[in-house]
Design goal:
161 residues; mainly alpha; Helix Hairpins; two-stranded antiparallel sheet; 5 helices
Length: 161
């Protein structure tokens, strides 16, 4: 559990130190978008691989902590995408001005709380949030289900001993 806490803290710390400068050329922005997309693809692939392993009856694979870490990575990657859109395209988001705002928005979107204090206003932001919601429903909800299943299986094995 400590390891998961440290890894989560490192992911969030990395999120806060990714440099953003207004005078960056377009290729740097494109590279950043590409890295976020690659990270999200990796998260999706990892969850899909785990689903395939469990469907095949493979008891190995990712641990619940590993799946939880994948979920954290997905949330942080979307927070970075949200922040980038808010940073480079003024007016796309209302109330999203800091990285903490973006992380808060990504978590509130994931949990479907939606307080309304931060919301997408522009078409680019709304498109991004639609993708984020679909990703949350498909990938992160699947990861949560896998974590719950692995925890239950572990508890059943312990009871059987």
């Amino acid at each position: 559990m400590r390891r998961l806490a440290w890894q989560t803290a490192l992911i969030i710390a990395a999120y806060y130190v990714v440099p953003l400068q207004e005078d960056q050329p377009g290729w740097v922005q494109a590279l950043r978008v590409g890295c976020v997309l690659a990270g999200l693809a990796l998260v999706g692939w990892s969850v899909a691989r785990e689903v395939a392993k469990q469907a095949a009856g493979d008891e190995g694979g990712l641990t619940p902590a590993g799946l939880a870490l994948i979920t954290v990575a997905g949330v942080v990657l979307f927070a970075l995408a949200d922040y980038n859109v808010a940073y480079w395209r003024q007016g796309e988001f209302v109330g999203l001005e800091t990285r903490t705002d973006a992380l808060y928005f990504a978590v509130s979107t994931l949990t479907t709380v939606g307080f309304g204090d931060v919301h997408a206003q522009g078409q680019v932001a709304r498109g991004l949030v639609l993708v984020q919601m679909a990703f949350n429903i498909i990938v992160l909800a699947t990861a949560a289900t896998l974590v719950a299943g692995k925890i239950k299986a572990g508890q059943a094995r312990r009871r059987a001993r």
